[in-house]
Amino acid sequence: MIEMPAIDWLTAVVFAPLAGAILAFLLPRQAHWVGVGAVVLTALMASALVLQVLTEGAVVTPLGNWGAPLGIDLRADGLSATLMAMTTGVGLLVSLGALNSYAHHRAPERMRRYFWPLWLLLLSGLNGVYLSTDLFNLYVMLEVISLAAVGLTVLSGRIEAVRAGLEYMYASILGALLFLLGVGFVYLELGRLDFAGLLAAPPSPALGAALALMVAGLALKTALFPLHVWLPQAHANATAPASALLSALVVKASLYIVLRLAQYLLPLSEVLVALIGLLGVGAILWGSIQALRAERLKLLVAWSTVAQIGLVFVAFARAGADGVAESWKAAALLMLAHAIAKAAMFLAAGRIKEEIGHDRIRELDRSPVRPTLAQLSFALAAISLVGLPPSLGFAGKWILMEGAMTSGYWHWIAVTMIATMLSVAYFSRVLTGFLRFDRQRTTVGEHQGWALADAAPLTLALCALGLGLLAAPILAFMNIGYPFGGAP
Amino acid sequence: MNNASLLPLIILLIPLCAAPVLLALPERSAGLRTAINLGAALVKVLLVAWLSWKVSQGVIYDLRWTVLPGLDLNLQADPLAILFIALSAVLWLITTVYAVGYLEKGPHRARFFGFFSLCVAATVGIALAGNLFTFLLFYEMLTLATYPLVIHYGTAAALRAGRIYLIYTLGGGLVLLLGTLGLWVLAGSTDFVPGGILEGVAEDTPLAAQLLFAVLIIGLGVKAAMVPLHSWLPVAMVAPAPVSALLHAVAVVKAGAFGIIRVVYEVYGIETAQALGLTTALAVLAAITILYGSIRALGQDDIKRRLAWSTVSQVSYIALGVALASPIAAMGALAHLIHQGIMKITLFMVAGNLAEGLGIKQVSRMNGVGLIMPGSMAAFTLAALGMIGLPPLAGFVSKWYLAAGGLDAGQGWVIPLLLGSSLLNAAYFLPMLHRAWFRQPDAAPQDAPVRRPIGWMLAAPPTATAALVLVAGGLANAPFSPLEWTRFIVTLEYSAEAF
Amino acid sequence: MSTGLIFGLTGLGVFVVGLCGALVLVDPLRRVLALKLCSVGAGFMLVVAAWKAPPEAPDPVPHALVITGIVVMISATAVALALIRRLHTLEHEHHD
């Protein structure tokens, strides 16, 4: 009897967007329909994969049936599936926003034509990272992501964007090469690169050096202070949907790899942990200060990303050399929360700029138009990023602080609280600007700024807020396949 | 008997769902807005009445939703919750009428009523919170919802007040978050349980329990405006009168005071708190606040500012009564939660009427206003006399029980404290009354604003609350009076032999 | 000193030279070249990993990895060069 081969969702979620990217590139006139179609299809496949993980536990596919260590395995455990679901879900909503934003005749032809192939390529790369199980494959996927992300950065074609994109490109290549050098070290030492092989390896100086190199490369790619210099300009000058994708999704891929390296390769050494924690604190302070000083809305949002990435690294550092499972959960939840809320925030910022015509924070309250729904989305996203209950960001901070308090790490609690206060300070600059006070007591042009395009940021913002109520099941799902427990 | 019906959730959802609708309504559809406002407030009053009836029959409502492993959002309708929720429901209805009248022609009414409604939802949540975690959620929500109300006028002073308000209250919220975490780590639970959950911890690590108490009281004391965390309150009086009224009577300061009640009785338990020496510390803090607030009120010429300092003083009566660790004082404290609310809301609404109708904002310009606005000033007089503690008004009842409780607990120093405070109350209220009733009106200065007749929507609410002041005091022993309800609560919080 | 170590150190040295260049240089084209140098260094390390004393045949896996790496780097360089050209044109227009 011949068994029906079950559809292999792992391969599908990587290759479907890739095929979409090629198709969208070949059919520029239909690019947006191809694009949205491919994203929807990928989202459906991702849901199927999530269901499969939920019912069967971790899923593994050897590509071409070669098998590790020679071949390439794709594996989805709870953590991978969560991040993949996050990517496709956020991506789907950003796509809907983009559909509207690039549909206008104002948008140059180039944007409409190239956004979709680039974004689909990015999606393919991101899913590839989350499902990869060997280091070299991760390197390739990182490069795929870099190329697509740089393309998205310069999409507007403005001089600032191209300049920022070039800086981003340098940082990205250098980060990938540092990673590659680390990969070389690992191969020299162990003769294999698959996760399962790494897990069995005894710690050695060469592996320590390899880990340090790879973490340095990833820190550059994820813009950890002081390697963040490329990020604010790149994220602030891209078009809104592109910024949303870059800030919400792209930086998460590198963070995810740090998580996996610490899980499979080596527990991070004391020195590395201290350094990461210190840099995280630096990122929080510097990012917040710059956000407080920023004069433009999108720049403020971009700087806030620097600060929030710092917090995720603090969560890593809090995990300490012994890799306390709770802190990894905190880091993962914070990543998830940041992705959803930041996508909402960048889309909302884009909508506000579109309606008002500028994004100077000082003059936000002087506009005759009030894009109320976009402002509401921005405010809700800010609540989650600040970490007020019941948002997803709060759940992450709660676990982080709970763990820190249980182990008596009071300095990490202080850092988290300072980060929270600073984020309130810089977001309240914007939120106060949303409350328009006209001294003449006239009601001008209220409620003009509603559009279908507000649906995407609003949905994302509501998710960022509401998913906090589902933090317990999300955590349980992430733990499928024991990504935090070490032994698979 | 525990009941899992959704009634508490529905009461919470009414203002919560009204808020986005009100925010989305166009500015011009004033009629629809008023209808939604009043309709929601009325339905809420009815549902709360129904809930109170059920709770008085011994039913406890308990709804749970797990957020993180072991950590629940919990809505619980117990007698203490009813006390606060009833206050919020009744005063929301009255303040809504007043606010509709007050802001009739003003700008941004959609925004105002939207956030107003959100603020009320937060208050309901605070009342119904069954554990400190849930309490924290609504405590933060209250901060966010009141901020746009405080800066409603958008003037430089309002924005400055808003900034100070936000720094204090969000800072307080963060400290409370720290306290909640600490409680969770120490006790493994944040539930409000009569008798407390920290008995074991207090025996093993008394220092940790004492530190935690300090953290919690700082977090709550900010909103309750206890010295030295009070500075935001007198500044925040730049808000429109209905907002000040609600802030001082139900929403913000009471949320802090209510939190203190919950923490002392249901997190620590009165006996544990007493054993750790915490009640004494709290009582001293409250006493300082009572005196300091009254003394500062004396020197204020701005009417609303004087009332604000009076709030600083009066709200700490609640903390004092809780800290005296006597069931009788506890009754006084809980009754004062209600009594101070109805008295202070009356005073603020009349202050708003003086400003709206006559353009008078200073005590020194109150000469003869009693003759111009007899109705409003009569209400003001009743409430002010109640604040001083004249029998048979509401304020007298709470002060009487506080004093009796002080004697009962062997804390004789409370009597001179209360007497001194009442003298100070008289010293800052009586001159206002004297000016209003017994002095000739000033000749109108040239820059005096035009007198505007105030409509019934501004006149009726303070009259109604003033009547409540009289009723709550005069009929204090009738069933379902605030005082009788507090007796019901206190029997639950104190073990039987304490009575 | 074994052959492997000499080659390895050379690879590392090339990488470090490239790294310094990428961090210090200002001219966009030179920075790209510096990054290319980094990639050569990293590739070197992988080739060293493949090397085995004759008569044993070298390990084919790192070779495959190096080839992939070269392909990736070529595309990255191409994109970087395209961006530099674009920026050049834009700056030119800007000044006119």
From TrEMBL, chain B:
Residues 129-422 form the NADH:quinone oxidoreductase/Mrp antiporter transmembrane domain. It is a multi-pass membrane protein. The chain crosses the membrane at residues 6-25, 32-53, 80-100, 112-130, 165-187, 207-226, 238-261, 273-295, 315-335, 371-393, 413-433, 454-476. GO terms for cellular component: plasma membrane. GO terms for molecular function: oxidoreductase activity. It holds the Pfam family Proton_antipo_M. Coiled coil: none annotated. It is found in: Cell membrane; Membrane. Keywords: Cell membrane, Membrane, Oxidoreductase, Transmembrane, Transmembrane helix. It comes from the Bacteria. PANTHER family: HYDROGENASE-4 COMPONENT F (PTHR42682), NADH-UBIQUINONE_PLASTOQUINONE (PTHR42682:SF4). This is NADH dehydrogenase.
UniProtKB/TrEMBL annotation, chain C:
It holds the Pfam family Oxidored_q2. It comes from the Bacteria. Its main location: membrane. The chain crosses the membrane at residues 6-26, 33-51, 63-84. It is a multi-pass membrane protein. It is found in: Membrane. Gene3D superfamilies: 1.10.287.3510. InterPro entries: NUOK/Mnh_C1-like. The keyword Lipid biosynthesis does not apply. Keywords: Membrane, Transmembrane, Transmembrane helix, Ubiquinone. One of its GO terms (cellular component) is membrane. This is NADH-ubiquinone oxidoreductase. It comes from Ectothiorhodospira haloalkaliphila.
